[in-house]
């Protein structure tokens, strides 16, 4: 049976392929030197901005969150389209960036002359069927793939090829770079789902027709007071078939899965966002903050506030360490 978890992951991701369809739109090739700053407003629903660091280092900042250090080969995607700022790690007077020219399929943006210290490939990603896809509900506000992780060699190769095509700006370079971006960003999302979600069995449920219909309905309306009959109707099967399907695919009962899903997504929101506890509780289906806190502690052995506090402390420590490393290497 050795290797079976990998096979299950592959099977689940194959079944999820229609939900993972994305369409990238490459926008800017950015060449920055010294101190620089680039503000990005919120995107429309279904669009996720991304930044690929082809060379150098930068910091990504979001309201209320610790800065995230990105280095050469790193990729950041914001699945919910949140407003954010990307800036250089150097201090000093900020040199205003300007669009210099249309460079093939993208705009060339730079803030000075000479050899750039940091080079970014920026754009946005369209999730097809965004309004009905459960995948978006599984993704945090920020997904970062660092180049020192397992897939670094493949990611670096794709980033390097994209960069070459965009710099060349030859015939067909835009189409080639866009196709490479599509593959690259799918790899990032796949790696995140494999690493963060697969352990819950949710991907396996989404890969089976019956449990996928049920899971998608639950993800689309977690705040609803679901009964077993409601879930069976959403899955378009009988109660007995629904229960058998959940047992076969994930060895759990539908209502037990719903409870775990609510608390798991609530924990993700506590660790990655700043929404008030009462709002999170209501949106995942709890009538009161106290009822949510009791259920959360039973599930995880810790109160929601402690999880949020620990996540903030870790994020701040990571940001300080990142700044320290950036200063040491500059």
Automatic annotation (TrEMBL):
SMART domains: HTH_ARAC
Pfam families linked: Cupin_6 (PF12852), HTH_18 (PF12833)
Record-linked InterPro entries: AraC_lig, AraC_XylS_family_regulators, Homeodomain-like_sf, HTH_AraC, Tscrpt_reg_AraC-type_HTH
PROSITE patterns: HTH_ARAC_FAMILY_2 (PS01124)
Gene3D superfamilies given in the database record: Homeodomain-like (1.10.10.60)
Domain HTH araC/xylS-type: 212-310
GO molecular function (one): DNA-binding transcription factor activity
Spans through the membrane: none
Sorted UniProt keywords: DNA-binding, Transcription, Transcription regulation
Name used for this protein in its record: AraC family transcriptional activator of mtrCDE
Organism, as annotated: Methylobacterium brachythecii
């Amino acid at each position: 049976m050795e290797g079976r978890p990998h096979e299950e992951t592959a099977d689940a991701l194959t079944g999820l392929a229609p939900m993972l369809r994305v369409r990238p739109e490459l926008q800017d090739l950015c060449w920055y030197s010294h101190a620089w700053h680039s503000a990005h407003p919120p995107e429309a629903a279904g669009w996720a901005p991304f930044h690929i660091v082809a060379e150098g280092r930068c910091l990504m900042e979001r309201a209320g969150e610790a800065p995230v250090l990105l280095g050469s080969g790193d990729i950041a995607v914001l699945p919910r389209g949140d407003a954010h700022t990307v800036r250089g790690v150097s201090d000093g007077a900020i040199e205003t960036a300007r669009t210099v020219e249309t460079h093939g399929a993208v705009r060339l943006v730079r803030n000075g002359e000479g050899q750039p210290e940091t080079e970014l490939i920026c754009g946005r990603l369209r999730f097809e069927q965004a309004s009905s896809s459960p995948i978006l509900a599984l993704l945090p506000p920020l997904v970062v793939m660092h180049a020192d992780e397992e897939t670094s060699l493949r990611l670096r190769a794709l980033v390097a090829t994209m960069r070459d095509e965009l710099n060349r700006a030859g015939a067909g370079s835009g189409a080639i770079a866009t196709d490479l971006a599509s593959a690259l960003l799918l790899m990032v999302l796949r790696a995140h789902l494999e690493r963060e979600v697969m352990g819950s069995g949710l991907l396996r449920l989404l890969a089976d027709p019956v449990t996928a219909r049920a899971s998608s309905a639950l993800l689309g309306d977690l705040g609803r007071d679901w009964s077993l009959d409601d879930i069976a109707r959403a899955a378009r099967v009988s109660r007995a078939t629904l229960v058998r399907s959940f047992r076969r695919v994930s060895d759990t009962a539908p209502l037990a899965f719903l409870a775990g899903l609510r608390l798991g997504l609530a924990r993700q929101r506590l660790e990655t966002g700043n929404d008030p506890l009462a709002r999170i509780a209501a949106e995942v289906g709890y009538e009161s903050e106290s009822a949510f806190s009791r259920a959360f502690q039973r599930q995880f052995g810790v109160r929601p506030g402690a999880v949020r506090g620990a996540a903030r402390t870790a994020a701040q420590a990571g940001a300080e360490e990142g700044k320290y490393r950036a200063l040491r290497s500059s």
